[in-house]
Amino acid sequence: MKKILASIIAVILIAATFVGCSGGATTTPTPTAKPTTAPTAAPLTGNITASGSTALQPLLNLAIEPFKKATNFTGSITINGGGSGQGLTDVAAGTVNIGNSDVTAEQAGKDGKGLVDYKVAVVAVGIAVSSDVAEKISNISTDDLKGIFTGKITNWNQVKGWTGGSLPIAVYYRKAGSGTRTLFELYGIGTSMTDAQIGAFPNFTKKESSGDLESAIASGKGAIGYETLPYCGKLKLLKVDNVAATYENVYTGAYKIWGYEHMYTKGEATGSVKAFIDYVMSPAFAPTITASGYGAISKMTVSR
């Protein structure tokens, strides 16, 4: 009997020891949390309108569908041309949300007060010639370029480096207010003339848009004009002072005829307009910029 009692006491002591080690705590199961769904951001909507640079127009058109997909945008986007000057006039007047320009408002002769400038890309201007010209010359000096576009040189046999015979020069130029024209006059020949002055030369023909000028040079004879690189895929380009019109040369400052592509808004961009501009400037769209004939601002080692 004593042995049985001792065994019972031992069992009680062992059980007490385990209770002490556990601190006497009891575990209460934690209720399983119910899954929650994160609130979905409201889709962007509204109407985005832009006008201006015909050089920038193709790039922005390429941004429309991926922007809609990335942001679930349900509104409309309209990108019109008209030239840089027209875009700046329209956005200042409030008739469009965005004014696209190859030059600054000041370079375009606009006040720019109240406008906010978003630089989205770099654009170079090449000296394009028709195929028959490209067969006889590959480089042109700044002096000869200026002579041609001020009406002093009218035949290719007056141009240094020409290897052919007599060939009248057909000059194609953009209308006043064109950003491409402004870039060429500022950084290509260092002078400008009015349409009235240029119109006095019988071998000069004005074109309203980059696309029109591209077509004229491609089908012309003895033709020369200035064109932004996105439109030069099928055109022959001359070197200028032995420097080719490539973005590698633009990035280092070796090639001089270039500028920034600008998207201007009246006041800070907001809502869907801001989202569209942000997308154009985003890393997601950057490969499209360079693949479409424009330069990357991030690669510039010089500025202006």
Quick rundown:
By secondary structure, the chain is an alpha/beta fold. It contains eleven helices and ten strands. The chain has helices at residues 2-21, 57-71, 84-93, 131-134, 142-149, 179-189, 195-198, 210-219, 247-252, 271-280, 286-291, and strands at residues 47-52, 76-82, 98-101, 115-129, 139-140, 170-174, 204-207, 223-228, 236-240, 258-266.
Which key features would you list for this structure?
D-Maltodextrin-Binding Protein, domain 2; alpha/beta; 10-stranded mixed β-sheet; 10 strands; elongated
The CATH topology annotation of the largest domain reads as D-Maltodextrin-Binding Protein, domain 2
How many distinct helices?
11
Total strands: the figure is 10
SSE-based structural type = alpha/beta
Helix coverage percent: 25-40%
Please indicate the count of domains: 2
Strand percentage:
15-25%
CA-CA gap between termini: 107 Å
CATH superfamily of the largest domain: Periplasmic binding protein-like II
Spans where pLDDT lies below 50 across 5 or more residues: 1-40
CATH class of the largest domain: Alpha Beta
* Radius of gyration, whole Å: 33 Å
Helix-strand pattern, N to C? HEHEHEEHEHEHHEHEEHEHH
The geometry reads as elongated
Mean pLDDT: 89
Question: What would your notes on this structure say?
Answer:
The chain folds into 2 domains: about 45-120 and about 260-300, Periplasmic binding protein-like II (D-Maltodextrin-Binding Protein, domain 2), CATH 3.40.190.10; about 125-250, 3-Layer(aba) Sandwich (D-Maltodextrin-Binding Protein, domain 2), CATH 3.40.190. The protein is built from 11 helices and 10 strands. The model is unreliable at about 1-40 (pLDDT under 50). Helices cover about 35% and strands about 20% of the residues. With about 300 residues, it is α/β, with parallel strands linked by helices. Strands 1, 2, 3, 4, 5, 6, 7, 8, 9 and 10 form a 10-stranded mixed beta sheet that branches.
